[in-house]
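Whether sequence alone determines local backbone shape is best considered at the level of individual chains. Part of our work consisted of pairing the sequence of a single chain with a tokenised description of its backbone. This step matters because it turns folding into a mapping between discrete strings. For completeness, the protein is quoted in full, as a sequence line and a line of structure tokens:

_____
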Amino acid sequence: MPTKKSKHPARRLVTPRSSTAKKSGGKKASGAGKYEPIRRELQRQRKALLNEAGDSLAHRPEIEAHPDVSDQASAEIDQSFEIRLKERGQKLLKKIDEALERMASRTYGICEDCGGAIPFQRLKARPVTTLCIECKTLQEEKEKSRR
């Protein structure tokens, strides 16, 4: 099996084999697979986010004009906070959709940086992750050093 070049010289990158792969011919067996509970949870979260977005569109409050400057500022801060929450929900929805696509294409659980397997416990705790813990740690260290 060919290996990819790694950013981590001590690591050899090999795409992890599915535990459901048949030994004859390497075909994957049909069935739910080990990521099925994570897939169901992602779909549940996706549905909840979409329902919440639909509710907020249906019950959109009018912007009130307050005679007092302090009350107006407070109302605008509240509205700004709600907008940020909705933006975070949109970003999470996008990440959930991408994770479900990776599951469909059978690339879920493979680190986008090094190509190694992402441990199941990490995926269970953070199902939208695309990096193994080592690559995520390196990414965070690089971000810290840029600041």
